[in-house]
Amino acid sequence: MARIWRPLGVIPNQVYDRALRRLPLPPVTFAQVQLTGQRVGEVIMVPFGAAHLLADRRTGGRKVAEAVDLAVRRGADLVGLGGLTAPVTNGGMVLRRRTDVGVTNGNAFTAATVYRQVEELLGRAPHGRVAVVGATGSVGSAVSMLIARGGDAAELLLVARDATRLASLAGRIGGSIPVRTTRQIAEIVDCDIVVLLTASAETVVRAEHLAIGAVVLDATQPRNTSPELVRLRPDVLLLDGGVVEVPGLRLQGGSIGLPDGLTYACLAETLLLSISGHRGHFTLGRPTLDKVDEITAIADRHSALGFRPAAPMSFGSRTAVVTTSGVVAA
Ligand SMILES: NC(=O)c1ccc[n+]([C@@H]2O[C@H](COP(=O)([O-])OP(=O)(O)OC[C@H]3O[C@@H](n4cnc5c(N)ncnc54)[C@H](OP(=O)(O)O)[C@@H]3O)[C@@H](O)[C@H]2O)c1
Fold it and tell me: What is the pLDDT of residues 68-86, one digit of tens each?
């Protein structure tokens, strides 16, 4: 099993971008992954900054393919895509013809994890109105379908920039709750819970967009919210989304910005597939609910190892926060 990642949180994005635009660096093995003391894989870094990757998807896609080649040379039979390496390869779809290695974008387990976090928050949300920003994406579409299937939200607002894709998602979403679509981020202002799943190098959700006491569940990498939001809006709770507890997990030689025992849900999907002996591709493009249910069942079988959403954190910190909406993160 191998992993493609960029050491988010280690080097500021702008510095990383400027340096990497000038230096045509090859992908490198960045850290070893150990699970309960056994070496189970490696993290491979794609040396390309977020803004550069999104602005030049063709070159970005080529860099990701080179990283997959490196993983294969190092003996990997499964590669998980992390950070923006999935969006830049259309959720891994551009790698679907590869027969030398299985590929997964990790987004089925990410969607399952984010949905479990939303369910938890819904129990305390005053009005039950949820916005998914980035709803038409790979993770966003699956999370939106899970919320609609779950039926616990009072209303679901789907937000993205492309109206055609929004209408198509709303048409096939099913479920029993009212669903609205919008291209205007300002419309999230009446939502109690905002789930952020955009793929952008910019700040997408800002202080002026949010209702009093709103909870923002931000699963983006790199973050599409700024720590400034917490300072400007002390009433708002900004929680990290898509982080999973796997107590026996250690990275040796490098950090992906999380302490030992915690990891991103997409890396957790790759681990789950690896330890369950999966062969071939798993999640490519947008995950179906069947894929989400399949990876959830695999996680349940390995629950002795963890694979559950981490306790609430904000920007990696577990400081206790109480908001006017009454949500407590300890
Ligand atoms: N925590 C984890 O383990 C984990 C796992 C997987 C992914 N992620 C993160 O989750 C995010 C989404 O990944 P993905 O693979 O689902 O990406 P994706 O398939 O490219 O989807 C991105 C979505 O965001 C929308 N979008 C982009 N920029 C926007 C903007 N400025 N305003 C509103 N909507 C915008 C896109 O639609 P339009 O282009 O139509 O706007 C699309 O709906 C990424 O940041 C990724 O790094 C985290």
Answer: 999 999 999 999 999 899 9
